[in-house]
């Protein structure tokens, strides 16, 4: 999703920032329902590899996806700062495991830019936008659609010995 759609004519965009594998990532608060404390996850037998299990959130069963595994290949470790970011995307409610919720920021639309062209041409689609910050490293705004696509791909069978090209896979 291009930056123009994230900003959608607004002068500011509100983002919730999270720590994953020691780096800051952000989510558009329009897709964020709430942030809750880490709790034990009930595993789902034979679930796709990226679905850690489910939690009971005030009577609703919510699947949990480890954002560390999706973005960095490293699982998030539960701890006193760990949280679940409860998001809604394409009508689905999902909990994203993160190391910490750090802050909510209002960013001027001019501070948002598209991910680098080389990364985009190479098929990188994990970030919707990059937030430029003076004197600090950029923050990637996570594309929740990418997270769901990774979950769907993790459910596809892989033929033994076959090379899998993610760009050639088609989702149902």
Helical content class? 10-25%
- Straight-line distance between termini: 20 Å
Question: Strands of the largest sheet, in order across it?
Answer: 8-1-2-11-10-9
Q: Characterize the main sheet.
A: 6 strands, mixed
Query: What structural class is derived from the secondary structure elements?
Result: alpha+beta
Q: What is the CATH architecture annotation?
A: Beta Barrel
Radius of gyration: 16 Å
CATH superfamily: CheA-289, Domain 4
Q: Can you write the helix and strand succession as a string?
A: HEEEEEHEEEEHEEH
How does the SSE layout of this entry go?
Layout: H1 3-7, E1 12-20, E2 23-28, E3 32-37, E4 51-57, E5 60-66, H2 67-72, E6 83-89, E7 92-98, E8 100-108, E9 112-113, H3 117-121, E10 127-133, E11 136-142, H4 144-155
């Amino acid at each position: 999703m291009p930056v123009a759609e994230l900003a959608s004519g607004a002068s500011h965009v509100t983002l919730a920032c999270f720590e994953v594998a020691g780096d800051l990532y952000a989510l558009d608060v329009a897709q964020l329902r709430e942030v809750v404390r880490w709790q034990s996850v009930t595993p789902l037998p034979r679930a796709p590899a990226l679905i850690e299990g489910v939690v009971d959130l005030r009577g609703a069963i919510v699947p949990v996806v480890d954002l560390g595994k999706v973005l960095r290949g490293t699982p998030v470790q539960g701890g006193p700062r760990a949280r679940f970011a409860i998001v809604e995307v394409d009508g689905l409610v999902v909990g994203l495991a993160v190391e910490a919720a750090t802050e909510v920021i209002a960013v001027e639309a001019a501070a948002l830019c598209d991910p680098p062209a080389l990364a985009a041409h190479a098929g990188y689609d994990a970030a919707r936008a990059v937030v430029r910050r003076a004197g600090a490293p950029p923050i990637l705004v996570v594309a929740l659609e990418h997270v769901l696509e990774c979950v769907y791909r993790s459910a596809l069978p892989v033929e033994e010995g076959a090379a899998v090209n993610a760009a050639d896979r088609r989702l149902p």
